[in-house]
């Protein structure tokens, strides 16, 4: 009986280890760039977890992703945990109601999330402080989103494997 209660905890720990692994790879001193654009796979994690587990785990891992963003990257202080938590909850609610647990659904969720975070970054930091023109910022944002979505299977398949492995055990 206690083994059944430990399985969701173990699954959560595996998701957390995967999140920290992606975070460490992105914040290491190794420049992760493809076609001149920064690779950002962290927004794919709350989308994938929300797709597999629903709004509670999506919100939890969105909050953790946002905390890691605030720790490792520059930006609007304190808004990333709130944004990613709300994104994870919304992604989980939408995925439970309208989407199937497959890669195109995660691709849609993560692309929308990255577009929203890009618009938030532009509005709160680039526009206010650097006065950068919107077309240049939008071009950079779309390039980063495209590169990240091309590499998003690196996030989706491990998350799906963890979810399926533990779904079979229950």
Can you summarize this structure?
By secondary structure, the protein is mainly α. The chain contains 7 helices and 2 strands; from the N terminus they run H-E-E-H-H-H-H-H-H.
Describe this structure in words.
The chain is mainly alpha-helical and 170 residues long. It has a single domain (2-169), classed as Arp2/3 complex 21 kDa subunit ARPC3. The protein has seven helices and two strands. The protein has helices spanning 2-27, 44-53, 55-72, 79-98, 103-130, 134-150, 153-169; strands spanning 33-34, 37-38. A two-stranded antiparallel ribbon has the order 1-2. A hairpin with a 2-residue loop joins strand 1 and strand 2 (37-38). Helix 4 (79-98) packs antiparallel against helix 5. It is globular, with a radius of gyration of 16 Å.
